[in-house]
Amino acid sequence: MKRVHQIAEFGQKLMASGDVENTLELISSEAKHLLNADRCSIFIVDKEDKMLWTKLSDGIGRIVISLDAGIVGDTYMKAKPQLVNAPYEDPRFLPNIDKKSGYLTKNIVTVPIFDSKREVIGVIQLLNKSRYDFDDNDLETLTFFANYVSGSLELVLMSEK
Questions:
Q1: By CB count within 10 A, which of 26, 140, 141, 149 is most buried?
Q2: Domain map of the chain by residue range?
Q3: Tens of pLDDT along 69-107?
Q4: Gap between the Cα atoms of 137 and 75, Å rounded
Q5: pLDDT tens, 13-47?
């Protein structure tokens, strides 16, 4: 119940955010706080160019990958959340991003973000939960959170087009 109350309070801040960059930063910051994760990336779907991209990514700047690349791409293609607690053992994992940034990914949770037509418009990815691996409770919380923020994200993305 505490997490639901926390998300409701966050909603008030989100309503006032305005542009894409502020909205993404706010969503990212809250998601990390909710699940006690070290990093968060929000990948936006670009169907025209067939890619997923981040406007910002903790510690690395912009990331651009094809729609079917990595765990994020798999999340997009299947429109289903993913829980990966041993990423280097997962063939979908893209270790070159860690190499480029010098970061070590220990665990990952990804959840699709749906628009009002139930199409995936983005994927939220959290890395490195502190002290433990991500679990089903985290997956459930992040799915609820993604559904909660989807309308605001859809609105700011439409206003940028």
A1: 149
A2: 2-160
A3: 999 999 999 999 999 999 999 999 999 988 888 899 999
A4: 18
A5: 655 556 677 788 888 999 999 999 999 999 999 99
What predicted TM-score, i.e. pTM, was given to this entire model?
0.85
**Residue whose structure tokens are 């936006």:** 44
Structure tokens at 156: 């700011």
Fold of 2-160: Beta-Lactamase (3.30.450)
CB 152 within 8 A of CB 124: no
CA distance 80 to 68: 13
